[in-house]
Design goal:
The chain is mainly α. The chain has one domain. Helices cover about 75% and strands about 0% of the residues. It has 15 helices and no strands. The longest helix has about 30 residues.
């Protein structure tokens, strides 16, 4: 019994460290899978679906792990706890659940696995799909390390890049790229990036104090909010265009009923209810992604 309790406790802390309890960014992969799916697909389709999901999952784990390590080393996360600021999620490095040595080793293992899956991916598909995949994964993993996009005001770009999970999955499963999945990925990326605006709002004071030049810090909160609204509007405008032009089934218009949630997300953001806006943004992204996937499957 004690062994099981220890395993359960140990697993929980790593789930918190890598933030795998909120895998919203994996949902574009499901949309890409739905766009590639056809009745009667064989076992190979589902096997490749597992591989592309694993690829994105490991990429996101690395982003969260490396972000926690860098955030701790730069003192951003400790500052939040010290001044009792907005804690969006628990930071095991700050609370002492995970040591720095453990964090570095675990994140390095994730990176090694990610590189191994990328190598398999390249061997199993063409150069165009491989180029899109490797480019997207590279940008995603530069969130806090390497190019450190989130420290240069480009964090939203990295987050929006998760939308590329749709064309990546579609390309890997069909062996070719297409315009519709690529643009759907842009739509999803814009919505995901807009949800991340609230995250940067919540971190504004601590990021500014620690010298982390996020887009919110560079632009100021007023203009940063406007960027978030613009991303939502562009996402909906692009989706509407794809439906009107016939690139997506007309039934996709049904997801528009969730647009009211984005309106509420913006209202909460402007009202200063940052965490509520953030939560609603990610929950809406979750519902929209699943809704789009279901529509694509039913439209076959």
């Amino acid at each position: 019994m004690k062994v099981m309790e220890r395993l359960k406790t140990g697993s929980a802390r790593w789930l918190r460290f890598f933030e795998v309890t909120m895998p919203y960014s994996l949902l574009p992969v499901a949309v890409g899978m739905a766009m590639a799916w056809r009745p009667g697909v064989g076992a190979a389709f589902w096997g490749r679906s597992v591989l592309v999901t694993l690829l994105m999952f490991l990429g996101l784990m690395f982003v969260h792990g490396s972000d926690s390590i860098v955030g701790y080393r730069r003192g951003v996360d400790q500052q939040v706890y010290k001044r009792q600021g907005v804690v969006k999620r628990e930071k095991p490095l700050v609370t002492g659940e995970v040591s720095m040595r453990e964090a570095v080793i675990a994140t390095s293992i994730v990176l090694a696995l990610l590189l191994a899956v990328c190598a398999c991916y390249v061997l199993m598909t063409g150069w165009r799909v491989s180029a899109l995949t490797l480019g997207s994964v590279f940008i995603l993993t530069q969130y806090s390390v390497g190019l450190r996009l989130s420290y240069r005001g480009l964090g939203e770009l990295a987050v929006a890049g998760t939308g590329m999970g749709a064309p990546i999955a579609y390309g890997f499963l069909t062996g070719s790229l297409a315009v519709a999945p690529l643009l759907v990925g842009v739509v999803l990326g814009l919505w995901q990036g807009a949800a991340n605006v609230a995250s940067n709002h919540a971190d504004y004071q601590d990021d500014r104090a620690a010298g982390r030049k996020t887009l919110a810090v560079r632009l100021g909160l007023t203009w940063h909010r406007r960027v978030g609204v613009l991303m939502l509007v562009l996402g909906w405008g692009l989706l509407a265009s794809l439906i009107v032009l016939g690139a997506l089934p007309a039934a996709m218009a049904l997801v528009a009923v969730l647009g009211i949630r984005h309106v509420r997300q913006v209202q909460l953001l402007y009202a200063g209810e940052i965490l509520k806006s953030r939560r609603l943004g990610f929950e809406t992204f979750y519902k929209l992604s699943l809704g789009m996937a279901v529509v694509m499957v039913l439209a076959r």
